[in-house]
Amino acid sequence: MIQPSNGLPPKGRSHKLRMITALKTWAATPDGISTIVLAKMAFKMAIASAISFEVAQALRWEYPFYAAIAAIIVMSSTHGSTLLLGIQRIIGTVIGAIGGAIFAVALGTNFWSLGISVFLTIFLTSYWKFNEAAKLAGYVSAIVILSHSQSPWLYAWGRFLETLLGIGVALLVNNFIFPASAGVELRRTLSQTLTDLEQFYELVVDSAFTGNYDRPRVDKLKTSIISSLSKGRSLWQEVRQGQTNEPPEKRVNEAWEFLIRRIWEHILTMEHTVLARQQDTFWQILSPQITQLALETQSAMLTLATAVKSHQPSLSLSGMEVALTNATEQLNRLEEIKQQDYPMDELLRFFTFFYTMEEVGRKLQKMAGTLDYQINNSK
Fold this sequence. Notes:
Layout: H1 10-27, H2 30-58, H3 65-74, H4 79-107, H5 111-127, H6 134-147, H7 152-176, H8 182-210, H9 215-240, H10 255-275, H11 280-286, H12 288-310, H13 318-333, H14 336-339, H15 344-377
């Protein structure tokens, strides 16, 4: 029997192809993408820390591991965010080292010296709005007083140099190994935010229809969404500062920053309304009128999540307008609410829920419109 040129029998080659196909399919899923991003970040941290340590050792610095620690801590997804974290770390190191050295010389190593130094360095760093550097400043000042009071200024100078080396290496590694511009990272973050919002929206609507509320899963999604929104805020700032290789006409429309936050706030309002309801039968009677709108809204969120990440050349949410129109018409014609003596506050809660759903749909239409505008103008 003649073997294939790659040395694998037909069955072996088929198995290998299936494995490759399965791996590619997994890599395109949200879990796969997230895992790959984490792996890339871990790899960059490992490379940066190893290089920093070796350089510091070659320079015969006393504590080369501080350079490795700095490289790990400041490494972030983009050049801009890494630089920002690096600046914060330098500031914290400088303030802490100077504060510790001053009090070590003035008061020596004791309770009062440690307490006053830690308090002042943390307070002043926070007061000067370097919040990310505050704890580091207190930590460094304590180390100077407790372990290096005999030569505090020499130790402070060494910490500054080692921190500077770690930050510099992290910036270089971030630029040459798996580099990610702010624009690319922003698109990925927006896509993840929309995906999480879709799941949160689904849970809220399901609670409105069935009365079931999966609080642990909701809380987990809320944490993820808040984290994504915070990260997005920093990335928007980087994009505005030009820290991206995307030309202006291909960048995500800045209206998205406002619209996606408004959608988040609208879904929170829907959640609050659902949790405050009292008449289950009333909501069940009216739920069929908004089922189509709920499904279309979820579909629109996922469609936008894919489009913003992949620069999709065309996008249509025509089904959203149909769903909005149908839901409004059905509710306007609904006779049940006239035939039952439902409490006014319950009616208000339901229609608050519905009109907030409607606002989510309108915001998604605007997002689709601005994305389509950006794509068309880039051609």
